Amino acid sequence: MNWGKGIVTGMIIFMLFILSMCVYMFRMPADEYDHQYYEKGLDFNKDYNREQQVVRDHAQPVISQTGDHLLIQFKTPASGKISLIRPANKAFDKAYPLQTGEANKVIILLAGIKPGQWQIVLEWQNGGKSYLYQQEIYIR
Fold first, then answer.
1. Which of 82, 84, 103, 86 is nearest to 94 (CA)?
2. pLDDT of the residue at 132
């Protein structure tokens, strides 16, 4: 084989490679990105301040699992929202209203909640202050 055929063959192989990469890239699914990315970035400081408020006021709730329920003990009365987020599958996420009784406790029944790794997000208000607390938990 002479030089001319080798160069032409190499160029053809390179062009086929480029074309196959183009076809591959166009067949890939579209990137799923958050359309509210910038708005969430602007709200980051508000969430950070609420998390720091928990630290400043020593208001970190105590979360424990006993049998088939989750017990959340607050230091003071609270009202807000509890979110259980399943990192593996967003379809299993749950949200509950948060209203402590006289004992500053909230009990969540775990019936229907799959065991595994969860993230609990607590958002509450007390005395004109807003709080945000997040913790990873494992539900048995």
1. 84
2. 94
pLDDT digits (tens, 9 = 90+) for 103-117: 889 988 888 888 889
Between strands 69-73 and 79-85, the pairing is unpaired
pTM for the predicted model, two decimal places = 0.70
**What distance lies between CA 110 and its chain's CA centroid?**
20
Q: CATH top-level class for 45-139?
A: mainly beta
Q: Supply the pLDDT for residue 85.
A: 92
Judged by phi (left if over 0) then psi (alpha if -120 to 50, else beta), residue 104 lies in: left
Q: Which residues of the chain have pLDDT under 50?
A: none
Return the exposure string of 16-44: e unless at least 16 CB atoms fall within 10 Å of the residue's CB, then b: eeeeeeeeeeeeeeeeeeeeeeeeeeeee
- CB–CB of 121/83 below 8 Å? yes
C-alpha to C-alpha distance for 61 and 54, rounded to whole angstroms: 9
From CA 72, how far away is CA 114, in angstroms rounded?
19
The candidate with the shortest Cα–Cα distance to 72, out of 82, 87, 62, 60, is 62
